[in-house]
Amino acid sequence: MTEGANPAMVSYDDQDDAPDFLDNPAARLAMSQAVRMAEAIIFASAEPVAERHLATRLPEGVDLGQVMEELRALYANRGVNLVKVGDAWAFRTAGDLAFLMSRDQVQQKKLSRAALEVLAIIAYHQPVTRAEIEEIRGVETSKGTLDTLLETEWVRMRGRRKTPGRPVTYGTTNLFLDQFGLEALRDLPGMDELKGAGLLSPRMPANFSVPLPPIDTDELSEDEDELTDIDLEELGLLTPRAQDD
Predict the structure, then answer these.
(1) Which end of the chain has fewer CB atoms surrounding its CB within 10 Å, N or C?
(2) How far is CA 43 from CA 11, 36, 218, in A?
(3) Beta-sheet pairing, 224-226 with 155-161
(4) 89 with 54: CB under 8 angstroms?
(5) Helix (H, G, I), strand (E, B) or coil at 129
(6) Where are the alpha helices (DSSP H) in 45-110?
């Protein structure tokens, strides 16, 4: 697509790849309108917009996947790009122009080395409990470190492990993906990418390996229970109910 082109007038090199709606003027017009609607919804939102929310706002029967690809192509060569963040969509400054915004950004408090280590473990091993984090790191992990990560909203409490003591499990959020420019957890860097970026010491043990990125899903695993209101109260995430007189 050329920059600024009407999404209903996109040209396709291979007509066999062209979507069916191009053959139907009415469908083409409906697609164009749906693209405009999606653009308005995402533009007006301060946070990435979930696909399920978009589906409820767009005309019934519209192909959401096609709409988003049309809109993404429309912004491909602009100063602002449409990016996918987990199961949500957002407009972001084009990567090659990010330097223009740097002087206006508010510097966030730097995470400690311990917090970065814990964040990396949660990202690659989720769902993971505090005890499992400590086993991987080989040192105790303070509650303050986990609280700091929860405050950034890059990490969330997922559920409780179905083991004695029912420990809380932790995972990353869509805000984590957005912050680090990832569309999905599968895009987490592997061993070769980490080495190429100079993020791994050349003296790493011979048997050291980076785990494969976890499956992208918010659904609980078979060994997790959902957090109940009682759990949330115990964890200080829900105001206790007032006692009846």
Answers:
(1) C
(2) 25, 10, 25
(3) antiparallel
(4) yes
(5) strand
(6) 51-57, 64-74
Cis peptide before 213 (omega within 30 of 0): no
- C-alpha 53, offset from chain centre: 16
Distance CA 149, CA 132 (A): 16
Domains of the chain, start order: 7-102 (1.10.10.10), 113-234 (1.10.10.10)
Confidence (pLDDT) at 240: 57
78 vs 235: which has the higher pLDDT = 78
pLDDT at 105: 47
**Other CB atoms within 10 Å distance of the CB of residue 245:** 3
Cα separation of 21 and 9, whole Å?
A: 11
Rounded to an integer, the average pLDDT of 77-104 is: 83
Structure tokens at 66: 């096609």
Determine if residue 61 is left, alpha or beta; phi over 0 gives left, psi from -120 to 50 gives alpha, anything else beta: left
Asked if residue 158 has pLDDT above 80, the reply is: yes
Q: Is the predicted pLDDT of residue 108 greater than 80, yes or no?
A: no
Question: For the residues 63-85, what does the mean pLDDT come to?
Answer: 93
Residue 204 amino acid letter: M
Q: What is the pLDDT of residue 19?
A: 57
CA distance 35 to 57: 12
Diameter over CA atoms, the chain: 73
